[in-house]
Amino acid sequence: MTDTRRRVKVYTLNEDRQWDDRGTGHVSSAYVERLKGMSLLVRAESDGSLLLESKINPNTAYQKQQDTLIVWSEAENYDLALSFQEKAGCDEIWEKICQVQGKDPSVDITQELIDESEEERFDDMSSPGLELPPCELSRLEEVAELVASSLPSPLRREKLALALENEGYIRKLLELFRVCEDLENREGLHHLYDIIKGIFLLNRTALFEVMFSEECIMDVIGCLEFDPSLPQPRRHREFLTTTARFKEVIPISDPELRQKIHQTYRVQYIQDMVLPTPSVFEENMLSTLHSFIFFNKVEIVGMLQDDEKFLTELFAQLTDEATDDDKRHELVNFLKEFCAFSQTLQPQNRDAFFKTLSNMGILPALEVILGMDDVQVRGAATDIFSYLVEYNPSMVREFVMQESQQNDDDILLINLIIEHMICDTDPELGGAVQLMGLLRTLVDPENMLATANKTEKTEFLSFFYKHCMHVLSAPLLANTTEEKPSKDDFQTCQLLALIVELLTFCVEHHTYHIKNYIINKDILRRVLVLTASQHAFLALCALRFMRKIIGLKDEFYNRYIMRNFLFEPVVKAFLNNGSRYNLINSAIIEMFEYVRVEDVKSLTAHIIENYWKALEDVDYVQTFKGLKLRYEQQRERQDNPKLDSMRSILRNHRFRRDARTLEDEEEMWFNTDEEDLEDGEAVVPPSDKMKSDEDLMDPISKFMERKKLKDSEEKEVPTGKASLSGRQSPSFKLSFSSSPKASLSSPPAASLHPGSPGSPSSPGTGARSSPPMTAVTTKGGLVGLVDYPDDDEEDEDEEDADSKEESPPLSKKSKLSS
């Protein structure tokens, strides 16, 4: 299987009429029992897997093109091609195909049979061949009619193609074209247009090779200028000879390569500009033209890549300071087109191509080019850089890390890219969007390598946050020094949105690197300034950034948010949005809903203690009332530590019930007492760190007002009814310290729970008397205490200690004593 004669690339034609590379392997022909016939088999050279298994069907038309290609159609709109490394291998397989079909190997296409009437098929097969009229001026109309009538039938197309090829008819037609043009014979020129267009639709490589030869191609383009449907002829030849100039930025010494470049450009021009847009029925008839261009490009890239002298001269001039700007502009455009052509290569050859460019010093050359003032040159350099990043981001990362050891931060390649992104003059920031995508690829840990000796992720991210992150965040920090963005125009906001989106990506993927940067540089507070922007898309970017941070449920982030009161700009944005039902409204509510559903205790307490007064009137969603309920449950458990121990005792004895039953009873209990909960108000000692905002409530005074109201209603309410609050209900008799100067320096141990931040912004509870004995009474007697599933870990930690204490007996009407 190592015979290079049989080494092939397998291509398939996609929906866009472009050839897709399916892999490289070795081809053989063998009888396949499952397919009941001789078949072409291609096995991958990498792992021996089967790339192709195709039965040689007697009715399938196989074409041999350019001595090393075999092309055929497996089914409707499914074309295949084998590209051989050597001509000898192509000839061997072609002989096998012709042997199965009973054809002469000297032909370039095997005849195909399609469904036609028996009479028509007999007529076609009985005639020895197609006779073409003499190539004379007076017979052009007859030739045009013959070509048009042959196109619908594949057999007639084949016979017409053979006749044109064998008699050298195309060259005779082109001689007539020159005569007609000299005589200004418009009718003859119109007939020649129809004839040449029909020859294109024959889809025959052998005819294309004649038509696209150096001496014929310009006359072929001339014939296609005289479209009968147009009042005046086109001027394609004038464009190709005077306007379109071949710029040989580096002298090409190989005449064959130069001729191939000229040919490919002209054929591409014919396909894109000269030929009329093919109809639905004609589209598949031009597949060979697509293939001709595709394989020409592959040849050009291969020939240039093998010319070491050419590439050495190219990169020497690119990096030479003496090279003038115009010359460098041409060199960059050539390199960009060269990289674009490389996309036609199969993966293995593309590896070699980019490795060659890397060895030649393409990245240092790009660094020089990106430092130029010419916008077009920088744009071309950006496109080249994108090819490199998309192909091999690790290669780019390795270069910039080595570069950082020798150069200052200002001239690092990545920092140049960031600066071009920031300074993009396009109002829509098209270039900045492209560059941001490249940066995202470079900092994405998913495509970073991990080896036994080193971890690319650790090394590169450490480099990036040390040398590049300050450049990326500079526009954000400069624009958010006040309570509102200092510049709020559309272009600035769009740039800031791109930066925040990349920072959001970093939060999700970079863990401790971005965490240290955000907390040390106070990035979240700066980003939340953008919620005051007049552009909703930027405000939403800022909210997404904070939502991503909260979603990590990281207590370092939570303490940072509480210490700096970073929910304040979010609440302000929510209130400023008013009653409008829009994305900002939904995004903010979703953020608070997440805190409630996930029961992030530290944030729940922080939100209710500092922003409840601003949010308590929002009743079109239950999010904020649900947060308050979570908060009161949490405070109740902190203030009544024995409640948890009693739950543990009940769970461990005969009172334990099925978890699902318990959940149902909890739900019923919560629902029945919801009205009482809304009437009640938790007592929250004010934090000495709390901002003196006039919008924030005074919890002590509000509690006293509520208490007076409750006292006046107590006479009418039955004393046996229990409330979840546990702080205002008559069934719970607890003593509170009404002093507003509650100690905040050292919260009692009962108020701590796993993961609780020990920051000044998380106030403890006030001084209390000795720990109360806990029981709950209702009108009908003893009820099971609620098992809070969120505190299972707490319960397990405290069970041993609590079980040592004596549990009071549960009487039917026992009360809590203070």
TrEMBL record:
<protein>
    <recommendedName>
        <fullName>Serine/threonine-protein phosphatase 4 regulatory subunit 3</fullName>
    </recommendedName>
</protein>
<dbReference type="InterPro" id="IPR055236">
    <property type="entry name" value="EVH1_PP4R3"/>
</dbReference>
<dbReference type="InterPro" id="IPR006887">
    <property type="entry name" value="P4R3-like_central_dom"/>
</dbReference>
<feature type="compositionally biased region" description="Low complexity">
    <location>
        <begin position="729"/>
        <end position="772"/>
    </location>
</feature>
<dbReference type="InterPro" id="IPR051137">
    <property type="entry name" value="PP4R3-like"/>
</dbReference>
<feature type="domain" description="Serine/threonine-protein phosphatase 4 regulatory subunit 3-like central">
    <location>
        <begin position="142"/>
        <end position="633"/>
    </location>
</feature>
<dbReference type="GO" id="GO:0006974">
    <property type="term" value="P:DNA damage response"/>
</dbReference>
<dbReference type="GO" id="GO:0072542">
    <property type="term" value="F:protein phosphatase activator activity"/>
</dbReference>
<dbReference type="GO" id="GO:0005654">
    <property type="term" value="C:nucleoplasm"/>
</dbReference>
<comment type="similarity">
    <text>Belongs to the SMEK family.</text>
</comment>
<dbReference type="InterPro" id="IPR011989">
    <property type="entry name" value="ARM-like"/>
</dbReference>
<feature type="domain" description="PP4R3 EVH1-like">
    <location>
        <begin position="5"/>
        <end position="101"/>
    </location>
</feature>
<dbReference type="Pfam" id="PF22972">
    <property type="entry name" value="EVH1_PP4R3"/>
</dbReference>
<dbReference type="InterPro" id="IPR011993">
    <property type="entry name" value="PH-like_dom_sf"/>
</dbReference>
<feature type="region of interest" description="Disordered">
    <location>
        <begin position="669"/>
        <end position="818"/>
    </location>
</feature>
<feature type="compositionally biased region" description="Acidic residues">
    <location>
        <begin position="788"/>
        <end position="803"/>
    </location>
</feature>
<comment type="function">
    <text>Regulatory subunit of serine/threonine-protein phosphatase 4.</text>
</comment>
<dbReference type="InterPro" id="IPR016024">
    <property type="entry name" value="ARM-type_fold"/>
</dbReference>
<dbReference type="Pfam" id="PF04802">
    <property type="entry name" value="PP4R3"/>
</dbReference>
<dbReference type="GO" id="GO:0030289">
    <property type="term" value="C:protein phosphatase 4 complex"/>
</dbReference>
<feature type="compositionally biased region" description="Acidic residues">
    <location>
        <begin position="669"/>
        <end position="681"/>
    </location>
</feature>
<feature type="compositionally biased region" description="Basic and acidic residues">
    <location>
        <begin position="703"/>
        <end position="718"/>
    </location>
</feature>
